[in-house]
Design brief:
This protein has a domain at 11-117. 33% of the residues lie in helices and 26% in strands. The protein has helices spanning 9-14, 118-123, 125-144, 148-151, 154-170, 175-184, 191-195, 202-210, and strands at 18-24, 33-38, 42-47, 52-56, 61-67, 75-80, 86-88, 93-98, 105-110, 114-115, 226-230. It has a six-stranded mixed β-sheet with strand order 10-7-6-1-4-11, with no helix packed on it. Strands 3-2-5-8-9 form a five-stranded antiparallel β-sheet, with no helix packed on it. A hairpin with a 6-residue loop joins β8 and β9 (105-110). The longest helix is centred in the middle third of the chain and has 20 residues, at 125-144.
Length: 231
């Protein structure tokens, strides 16, 4: 029996730092400037002369000032939380940001920010790519929590899931194990097995559809985000 606890989704989230992401499409003659302050690291001045990402450590308080010189408006300054919230910081703004929790806690002193909805994320190629990569990172983390023999074997994943489901139908004592197994379901490589005739059932298909975690990734986008650093 390999499903003795829920898929470690919360563990994955708790291991993620916040991200400050700067997306610059067209370089300006006079780049915009962003100032990042924290009690532990002092003040850091950042030019928006290229796309970059910075990792903001958990458990700290930051102050961010964004002064935009962009005429074209083709800049995006984003804060991404460990649970996948995306906050856009507008030009000419000042905000305080706390990274103590997994969800964004902030206060704008000048101007106000905007959260991207799931629908908006899917319409912006860069955000969509980041979200897809985040989901891949999450899936890899979940799969690595399984015994080695199951990690790269979709057939064994399928057998173990169906076996746990069968045991739960016969013996009530295995119901918790089946609930744990269902929490792994969105991340198991069962698509191939379904094509080969495996029937997961309507409730399981619903679980696949509804439980897939949405979020972000630290991976590069087509903007080639570089120079990742710990702040």
């Amino acid at each position: 029996m390999i499903y003795r606890q829920e898929a470690p989704i919360n563990e994955f989230i708790n291991n993620q730092d916040y991200q400050l992401i700067l997306l610059v499409h067209n370089h300006e003659l006079f780049p915009s400037k962003l100032e990042l302050k924290s009690p532990k690291n002092g003040t850091q001045s950042i030019l928006l002369d290229s796309s970059k990402t910075f990792s903001l450590k958990r458990g700290e308080n930051y102050s961010i000032t964004y002064e935009s010189q962009s005429i074209s408006g083709e800049e995006l300054v984003l804060i991404v939380s460990p649970i996948g919230e995306i906050l856009q910081i507008p030009a000419q703004s000042l905000l305080s940001l706390s990274t103590h929790k997994t969800n964004i806690s902030f206060d704008f002193e000048i101007n106000s920010g905007t959260f991207f909805s799931e629908k908006e994320k899917s319409k912006i190629p860069e955000l969509k790519i980041l979200q897809e990569n985040y989901n891949e990172d999450l899936k890899e983390y979940i799969i690595k929590s399984l015994p080695n023999i199951f990690q790269n074997n979709s057939k064994l994943q399928h057998i173990s899931y169906q076996y746990t489901k069968w045991l739960a139908r016969l013996f009530g004592t295995y119901q918790n194990n089946y609930e744990y197994a269902k929490s792994y379901l969105p991340y198991l490589d069962l698509a191939k097995e379904q094509k080969n005739g495996a029937d997961l059932g309507d409730s399981d298909r619903s679980s696949l559809k509804n439980n897939f975690l949405k979020g972000w990734s630290k991976s590069e986008t087509k903007y080639q985000i570089k120079n990742s650093s710990k702040t």
